[in-house]
Structures are given as C-alpha cells and as structure tokens.
Amino acid sequence: MGLACIGHAYSHLFSPIFFTLVPLALERELGLSHGETVSLIFAGNALFGFAAPIAGWLADKWSTTGMMVFFYLGTGSGMIMVGLADSAFSLGFWLGFTGLFAAIYHPVGVAWLVREAVNTGTVLGINGVFGSLGTALATVMTGWLMYAFGWRAAYILPGIVVILTGFAFLGMLIKGIILENKVDRKPPPSPASRADTIRVYLILVITMCFSGIIYQATNPAMPKAFAIDFSTNGEGVLKVAYLLGLVYTIAGIINIVGGRLADLYSARYVYLFGFLLQVPALMLFGMSTGLSLVLVAIVMAGLNNSTQPAENMLIARYTPLHRRGLIFGMKFVIAIGIASLGVLIEGALFDWTGGFFWLFILLSVLAATATIAILFLPRENISAIAQPAE
Asked: What is the percentage of the chain residues whose pLDDT exceeds 70?
C-alpha cells in the first residue's frame, strides 16, 4: 500500500507543475497566450489516458510490479527532460513522453491495490489522498523551486527523486521484499448479470468523461484564477503555490471520507451525491473572487475527488479479476485521454471571454448531466457483497 500510494503521488506531479508554471513563468518566457501555453500539455495529458489500456493489458499478461518499475524510471526521466527543454515544441514533446510512462500508474497501481485490499473503499480513499498530496506538493514545490532556482528546477529535481525511488523499488523486487499477489485478498462478489454490467459500463462512460473534463479544466483554471486575484510577482508566486497546495491537500482528505462512506453505504449513492453537490460548487467558483474563491475551490476539488473511490469500486464490482488492469486502463482513456479536451476548452474560453464564468457554467451542466445518468445505475444489495473471511 505504501509503494502504491507513493506511486500515485508521483503520477500526479508532472501536470500540476506545468499548470502552476503557466501563469507564473511559461506564458512570459514562451511569449504565448494562456490558451496557447496550456495546449502544450495536451499530448502529455492525452497519452496519460490513452496509453493506460496498454499498460493495464501488459500488467494482466506479464507483471504488475514489473510495470511499476517502468513507471518510476520512465516518468522520472521524462520530467528531467522537460526541465531541459529549450523550445515550446521540445517542451510539449517531453511532456508527452512523461505522460506516456505516467499512464502506467492508474491501471496498474489501482488494480494492484484493489487486489490487495480488504476495506476497498477506505484503502482507495487513502490512495486518493496521496494523489491529491502529489498535486499539492507539486504546486508548493514548484513555487519554492522556481523562486529559488528558476522554473527548470521544478521538473529536474523531482524527476531525480522519482528515478531514485524506481531503483529502490527494483532492489526490493530483486530481494523479494515486494511480492505480487495473484488473487483478490477480499473474496469477490457474485458475478453481475451481463445486462447490468453493460448498463453500468455505458453509464460510467458518461460520468467518467464528464468528471474527467471537470478535473482537466479546473486544473489550469485554479492557478490562473489565483494568479489573477493574488498577484504573480515577488511573494505572489509563493502565495499562489501555497493556496493551491492548501486546496489539493484538503481535497485529498475529503477523498478518505468518500472512500469510507463507500465502504459503509452504497457506492452508487456516494457517487450520486458527489456529482449532485458539484453542480452548485462549480457555479459558485465561476462567480467568486478573493478568499471566497479559495473556499469554493476546496469544496469543488474535494467533491470531485470524493467520487473516485466509489467509481473504482463500481468498476471492480462489475469487472472480472483477469481483465481488471485492462478495464481500469480503459477508464483512464475516457477520464484522462478524451477528457484532456477540458484543458483546451479552459484555455479557449479564457482567451475568448477573459474570465471563467462561462467555463464553470458549462462544467456545472456536465455535473448535472452525470447526476441524472447515475440514477440509472443498478441498485446495490449491500448484504450480498462478499465480506472478508476471519
């Protein structure tokens, strides 16, 4: 669990580092508009999603832990090369390379964790915290490193740490400290009917796509909105980084709450209310400024995070073990790959309107549509879901 959580944090470094640097350094250095600058990570975000099924399939056919070694070494190497990039094209290319290897984590690491977990929702919630902490660490660390050494250090130094972790992971594999379990630690529930499975998959395609677009659009929007309200010069750089770190840290803690609720109650209802409450939160963000902007951002990001343990439990519930890596990979094709359009939508609407009001109206409509779709999920019989043996 520890190594899976560390990996989750690392997988969420490269993207928020970039989005934090966009308003603080890269727009000025590259001489591009906000929309043009954020579009440089589109290939990286798309590969972060589209490469996931291949990684999941390889983990199913070969080795989960072996794929995790490639995740650490490839992601760290890519981050170092991003820091060494000398043009907009090379920056975009190496962000794409990094996204390709970072794509390994979600289908492989999450499936690995589900297989090892007993209290699945709680464990996924804790794992989700580390994803949010990775994002929070990335934003704060970016502010520190940029302030002290320049923007390139924000990629190079974390990249070195990720590579060193990969070598440590490989050493533990060789010594037999890490072992790969081939069966679920918690007995799987009875198989769902084919009709229910198809219905769940179709509904989840809609909800995962809309949730992903919301996540991808808010990632660059929050740093830009905070930079506009809290300055980008001198100490303003660190202020923006600290505020972003605060938002993602608290949002991560809310992830644990979502996971625990999904263990205690129906994952379907946790999923439903998580989306329903996002509707007013997203609308409020588009109309807020100053301190209220930060408070609404915490609620908005926390609600988006809180749905993830329930969503992963629903996928695991309706997916056989031998295809779990592949199906989790397909999830991230939708939730990250296709949803990467959210980054382009955010940049285009900001360049067009000069603000975020209409962007967040659009995102609230997506959350409302997802809420309606979730109403058609099959009802869960909690007592029928298998419990762990003594």
From this structure: 91
